[in-house]
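Structure ticket #2291
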Amino acid sequence: MAAVNTLVALLQTAISTHSSAVGRATHARIIKTMDFSLPTFLCNHLVNMYSKLDLLHSAQLMLSLIPPHNRSVVTWTALIAGAVQNGHFASAIHQFANMHRDSILPNDFTFPCAFKACNSLGSPVTGRQLHALAVKAGQIHDVFVGCSAFDMYSKTGLKEDACKVFDEMPEKNLATWNAYMSNAVLEGKPRKAVDAFVKLKRSGGELSSITFCVVLNACSDASYLRLGKQVNGFVIRYGYEQNVSVANGLIDFYGKCRDVGLARVVFDAICNRNDVSWCSMVAAYEQNDDGENACMLFLEAMRNNVEPKDFIVSSVISACAGIAGLEMGRMVHAVSVKACIDGNVFVGSALVDMYAKCGNLEDCERMFDDMSNRNLITWNALLGGYAHLGQADMALALFEQMKRGNVNPNYVTFVSILAACSRAGAVDAGLTIFESMRSRYGIEPRVEHYACVVDMLARAGMVERAYELIKRMPFHPTVSIWGSLLGACKVHRNDKLGKIAADKLFQLDPQDSGNHVILSNMFAAAGRWEEANVVRMDMKEVGINKNAGRSWISIKNSVHTFQAKDTSHERNTEIQAMLSKLKTQMKGAGYVADTSLALFDLEEEERESEVWHHSEKIALAFGLCVIPPGLPIRITKNMRICFDCHTAFKFISGITNREIIVRDNNRFHRFTEYECSCRDY
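Resolution: structure written out below.
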């Protein structure tokens, strides 16, 4: 008997170590040492061992060698459980049917395995049959069987049946409550999950790490910040604050609720961080537009030997895209290649998006072409890149390619293609695409699509038509819609409509200084200085300060920031000399400063000096001083580039034979040979 127990222990070891060699050697030893027919319990262990090690054929062969009258529910359950564990769900159902034909009644271990197989196969019909058998066998009121039936109905879409099973359960254990809450979250009903958590808590039921993770997911999905903080209190009270899974859930929750400070507090308090901890914190920074800290934390993760998996890499690439950090993005791209995850569709899509948002169209297209596996996100990333970089013809061609390739567009696709049409002035094409959303693709236009069409009409000078569309919209116009109309009214000198748009903007976002400045500049451009001054005095009275315009340029991993009239840089002498040289060359080429939007009623020479020392011009002069000839100059600005700087950059690109890429708060501008890729001016 001792020898038999030793052999059983070896079979268990083979399962725990996932060693088929040990299992087969033990089986051979059993055959060699047993000179009589194998006892049933030992046969059951062999079936269990082979099925758990994913040697399903050997397990079935072993079962066939057992005389039918010696096969028990334990034998069949071992085979079925192993099949489910290794993803052979159809085989599990087939073996369950064979067991039923052998007149073996399933028990409280067999039914949960069979329900899980139905769940994974998405087969509610078979699930209903199993449910009927469980009722007939008197097993349905077992807490584990009932929980499995509930989970099966939930995941196969039979919500009403799931609720009936849940309500009829005489006893609900923690696994049942966790399944109920988890399925509520998956159904997109976070309030239902939270209510279940409250009910569980009031009933005095125990809470586990899984419970906290699920309810935190519910709170993050619904942005229940206050409620989630209360759950955090329970986490501490129950002693789960150092449970890494719960802590990771808290980081994710605070990040999605836009409280990145508390997310970092939780992260710093974790003693045993895992890869998910680092991923969650990087993602929290990225989701809250804090790309710089996301990149810094990623570098720290690499120093701590965190494996660069697809999730953390795609998150930090998105962070690089947000801050136009091309060099950092290239470094992360290299990391992804080294880790052999650059072929991952999410990493690849993030790289396409990053190169597009950094103004590097060549690498963006190369990355897209090199991807063997693309999804809709990939196509949308390239399409959005074309739109932002002013390549409207290429965007329209890509949209046609998507249609030929049976890639079904979504609402994001149409935002990008309509934005491309807007920037290209392709009004007819844009309106046709807008109408096709509902008629051809069954996609109801959202406010973002209307914003694109309003912008498209307004840019083309059809400001009255744009205003009529705003009045007919099935939504309340947003800040971006009125902002597009106001910006167009400034360019096309429609003061009347501009005043209407500005008044609407002041109601929707009274603290945004940019709208007041645009209105003031519009009056100034028309020579209506008294009205311009009234707008600026109103700003002062209500305490609205104009945001300082800043431009920055990255040189060898250092960021150099400039403001208008900035003379604080250590190389200011060279910068001023370059500005003076450029001014002389530009005037010789026909440049005339546009001072119509200068903010003050000054003498012409002073007005010219005002526009000449804008932050982007100073950043460009610095770039020309330090970046070797032939290399592109990349500048980022926190506000929209002004008309005069836009014109000046066209001249400078031709005079210096340099490619100049400017990313302002609205879009990209690619200046080459006296031209810009956009149609903004």
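Closing remark: The chain has a mean pLDDT of 87.
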